[in-house]
Amino acid sequence: SRRMNKIFGGVLGIMSFKYKILKNFLSQGEVELLNCWIEIYHRNNQKHFDWKMSPNADGYAYGDPITDAILLKSTNKIEKEIDRALLPTYSFMRVTTKFGDLYKHKDRESCELSVTIHIGSDGTDWPIYIDGKKIDLQKGDAIVYRGADYFHWREEFLGDWSANIFLHYVFADGNFTEHYKDKRKSFGLFKTLEEKLNEIHSK
């Protein structure tokens, strides 16, 4: 079947795959909608702040229904780009503010394949580094990369704000299929980072 070909035909290729830039991954209308949602969310956010990955403790959303919908909608598109079947795990949104950065890290098991989508900013460039390679994204652009295998980070942000959405997947033929939905009962179940980290460390 076509899906089985994706699974077995893409295994060798993905072993050497590091990242791929996808221009205009989201339409202009999708970007405008998400910018509006992020502005509303950011202005009303009072308790969801990411102390783990940035010294600024910038605002985030884990598994929000709107970003999980993008996660599901994008699955087939990403599968075609890498020629391998995927299981979606979770989505994440972060609004980074002045002097924020992203610590150098590799992702956890739920993030065998990751997609970073740039949604908007005040116009200040803020490149992502993957395995030492500097990569700039414009609004609506995405980069697909093996976040669990390669170190990635961002240096200190000197602008006012930058918003990005992250989609995470595991390989359908891989060793981490139990992370489907990030072990949630359903997509769209919003949790705090503290709740999710407590789940991970309690097992």
Give a nutshell description of this structure.
By secondary structure, this protein is of the alpha+beta class. It has helices at residues 2-9, 11-16, 28-44, 65-82, 193-201, and strands at 19-22, 49-50, 58-62, 86-97, 102-105, 113-121, 128-130, 133-135, 142-145, 152-154, 161-171.
Polypeptide structure, described:
With 203 residues, this protein is an alpha+beta fold. Helices cover 29% and strands 30% of the residues. The protein contains 5 helices and 11 strands. The strands form 2 sheets. The chain has a 7-stranded antiparallel beta sheet. Strands 5-10-7-8 form a 4-stranded antiparallel beta sheet, with no helix packed on it.
Spell out the blueprint of helices and strands.
Blueprint: H1 2-9, H2 11-16, E1 19-22, H3 28-44, E2 49-50, E3 58-62, H4 65-82, E4 86-97, E5 102-105, E6 113-121, E7 128-130, E8 133-135, E9 142-145, E10 152-154, E11 161-171, H5 193-201
Antiparallel strand pairs: 1-9, 2-3, 3-4, 4-11, 5-10, 6-9, 6-11, 7-8, 7-10
